[in-house]
Design a protein that fits this description.
Helix content: 40-55%
Radius of gyration: 19 Å
Number of helices: 2
Bound molecules: zinc ion
Strand content: under 5%
Low-confidence stretches: none
Distance between the termini: 34 Å
Shape: elongated
Order of helices and strands: HH
Number of strands: 0
Largest sheet: none
Length: 91
């Protein structure tokens, strides 16, 4: 069976010598203010679409809230992420 990355036979996608090794140790954080709720919703959806297209393996969350609640909502989202990381570690 041919390798799904380079099309050559004799190895598979896991052992392909042409596979580019990437360090997935980066994260991205963005804050945009001075926008309306519908704009926030649309930007958030598009960020999720672009994320799926460029880095389907990437995990993350977006937080949209009135500016006065943003810090509180970010803390909530980060607490949920921490919990899910701990759950994975215990499995
Ligand atoms: Zn290959």
């Amino acid at each position: 069976m041919a390798c799904s990355i380079c099309g050559e036979s004799g190895h598979n996608s896991k052992t392909c010598p042409k596979k580019v090794r990437q360090n997935n140790d980066y994260a991205l954080w963005t804050k945009i203010e001075g926008i309306s709720e519908p704009e926030a919703r649309e930007i958030s959806h598009r960020i999720e679409d672009v994320k799926s297209e460029i880095a389907p393996h990437g995990r993350g969350t977006t937080v949209k809230a009135p500016i006065k609640n943003l810090n509180k909502e970010i803390k909530k989202a980060l607490a949920i992420e921490d919990q899910s990381d701990e759950e994975k570690q215990t499995k």
